[in-house]
Amino acid sequence: MNKENSHISSYKDHLMVLSILITLTVLTVAITSIELSAFNTAAALLIATVKATIVLLYFMHLRFDQKVYLIMTVLVLALLVVVIGITVFDYIDR
Amino acid sequence: METTINAHTDLHRDDTAAKLGMWLFIFTEILLFGGLFIVYSVYRYLNPVAFHLAHEELSIPMGLINTIILLVSSATVAMSITAMQKGDKKMSMYFVAATVILALVFLINKYFEWGSKFEHGMYPGSELMALLSKGDMLFFSLYFFMTGLHAVHILVGMALLIVTFFRIKQNHVRSDKYALLENSGLYWHLVDLIWIFLFPLFYLIH
Questions:
Q1: DSSP assignment string, chain B
Q2: Domain limits of chain A?
Q3: What is the pTM for the complete model shown?
Q4: How many of the other CB atoms lie within 10 Å of CB of A7?
């Protein structure tokens, strides 16, 4: 347990993560500036999800921290996905 | 009590629980904004044309700049923890200060962004707002509410980081005891996390 706790991310690691996040942000803007209708939304949300995952795992340290935080976060996000899914199907079927 | 012999020993300190508490709070925030994202999606689905036209009123460069500011501020707060773990108190304080300044820049941008809308008579409860079609009104109401609620979170995050800054300065937060810095950092990343979704939803998708 202590080993996981004492993991130190270097400055370089953080700068690397930051440059990936900024690249993905610029990529989203580029993709959505092209007219691709429905694909647009899907691409933007997919990239946002990837960015959020990177923030959770590296900046918020879930990857290196005690597993209990990671498990709880996954459960909460799963709950959110279920609620969003139910709402989507509800409106599509009306 | 025998534990009072050493004044420097903290009584019953539990960093894991402190962090767990912050995570639990973050979960409630995720569900709060998650609910708002659902409201936004449903109204967008019901008013596709109005939402498409209304979103063109927002400035993508402004949103992009603010996104990058928040991403950089997330990195600086993460690096302040790295500095703290390495025992570099000064560097840690610099990084926290940098984060607060970036947060302030974000809010200044927001001020100009909202200000230009206000100048055109576009603000919650305005006469112009009442004249808008239902779809437009929904878009702008949700825009003001969600980015406004996010801005409130920025303010809370700044307050938290400023407190942390002084706790580091007074050595209450130090390299063997930095749960407060970690928790403020987690909260700050949450603010970034929410914006990561707000930006494409309001500024980009069409």
A1: -GGGGSTTSPSS--HHHHHHHHHHHHHHHHHHHHHHHHHHHHHHHH-HHHHHHHHTTS-HHHHHHHHHHHHHHHHHHHHHHHHHHTT-HHHHHHHHHHHHHHHHHHHHHHHHHHHHHHHTT-STT-HHHHHS-HHHHHHHHHHHHHHHHHHHHHHHHHHHHHHHHHHHHTTSSBTTB-HHHHHHHHHHHHHHHHHHHHHIIIII--
A2: 2-92
A3: 0.91
A4: 11
Task: Give the domain B18-204 fold.
Answer: Four Helix Bundle (Hemerythrin (Met), subunit A) (1.20.120)
Domain extents for chain B?
A: 18-204
Q: What residues of chain A lie within 8 A of the CB of B27, using their CB?
A: 72-73, 76
**Residues of chain A contacting residue B205, judged by C-beta atoms under 8 Å apart:** 32, 40-41, 44-45
For B11-39, what is each residue's pLDDT tens digit? Answer: 678 899 999 999 999 999 999 999 999 99
